Amino acid sequence: MTPEKVARRIIELFPRTSKDRDPFRVLIKTILSQRTRDENTDEASKRLFSRYKTVEDLARASPEDLYDLIKPAGMYRQKAARIIEVSRKILKDFSGKVPDNLEDLTKLPGVGRKTANIVLWVSFKKPAIAVDTHVHRISNRLGLVETKKPEETEVSLMKILPRSLWGPLNGSMVEFGRRICKPQSPKCSICPLKNECDYYHRLRASKSKENSPG
Ligand code: SF4
Questions:
Q1: pTM of the model
Q2: Neighbours of 140 (CB within 10 A)
Q3: Where are the domains of the chain?
Q4: How far is CA 197 from the centre of its chain?
Q5: Has residue 6 got a pLDDT over 70?
Q6: pLDDT of 158-178, one tens digit each?
Q7: Distance from residue 162's CA to the centre of ligand 1 (Å)
Q8: Structural domain 3-15+130-204, CATH architecture
Q9: pLDDT, tens digit, 9 for 90 and up, residues 69-112
Q10: Is 194 in the pocket of ligand 1 (CB under 6 A)?
């Protein structure tokens, strides 16, 4: 299978769509989602947005006001401080509107390419590949890319995949990574892409070498 077909297959098998496209909520939710599970992010976002509806509301708040609301997402002190900083910057430098381009998004405190690319795709439907640990790991295991850092993975994937697949790939690979291609102990035996996977072929080759007599 070509890289494009492999990517299409992952998107087909592990669809993931976001209902909420509001740029500010997507951005804040992405900050809340760092190092926690989806259920925790959803719970924390629900509690936060039930109290604070707009960028102005959050820009006026103090980090301590958010602690209880966002506790389910973990690291709540850092996340609360970040959310307030980001809200204030958006209000001050971008007239209260989340920017719709990578350059300005990455000027927001603590917003890197991954978060920016999620906002660009989910909220503005601009082609962008958000590379997190799942996308980086899976792309390398499958042999789609051979890279050391997520930024290199982003560039390499952009070269080999059509723009129409850039956006949906993140959500689908995250889902695939959570369910099958886990960081530790990937479930290769039940993986629908094992025949296309370099990691799996290497694993089998080393096992058959171990088992061969002499
Ligand atoms: Fe991941 Fe294993 Fe599937 Fe390869 S075969 S993509 S390593 S789960």
A1: 0.90
A2: 18
A3: 3-15+130-204, 23-124
A4: 22
A5: yes
A6: 999 999 999 999 999 999 999
A7: 23
A8: Orthogonal Bundle (1.10)
A9: 999 999 999 999 999 999 999 999 999 999 999 999 999 998 99
A10: yes
Backbone angles phi, psi at 129, to 5 degrees: -105, 115
Residue type, 54: T
Calculate mean pLDDT across residues 181-202.
96
Query: In angstroms, rounded to a whole number, what is the distance separating the alpha carbons of residues 49 and 118?
Result: 19
* Residue 62 per-residue DSSP state: -
User: What is the end-to-end Cα distance of the chain in Å, rounded?
Assistant: 35
- Among all chains, which residue has been given the structure tokens 């405190």? 109
Q: Is 62 left (phi over 0), alpha (psi -120 to 50) or beta?
A: beta
> Which CATH architecture group holds 23-124?
Orthogonal Bundle (1.10)
Q: Tell me how far apart the alpha carbons of residues 153 and 137 are, in angstroms, rounded to a whole number.
A: 9
**pLDDT score at 86:** 98
What is the whole-number distance in angstroms between the Cα of residue 184 and the centre of ligand 1? 11
The residue nearest atom 1 of ligand 1, judged by CA position, is: 181
Per DSSP, the three-state class of 128 is: coil
**What DSSP character marks residue 188?**
G
Q: What is the pLDDT of residue 209?
A: 79
- Asked if the model's pLDDT at residue 214 lies above 80, the reply is no
DSSP 35-55: TS-HHHHHHHHHHHHHH--SH
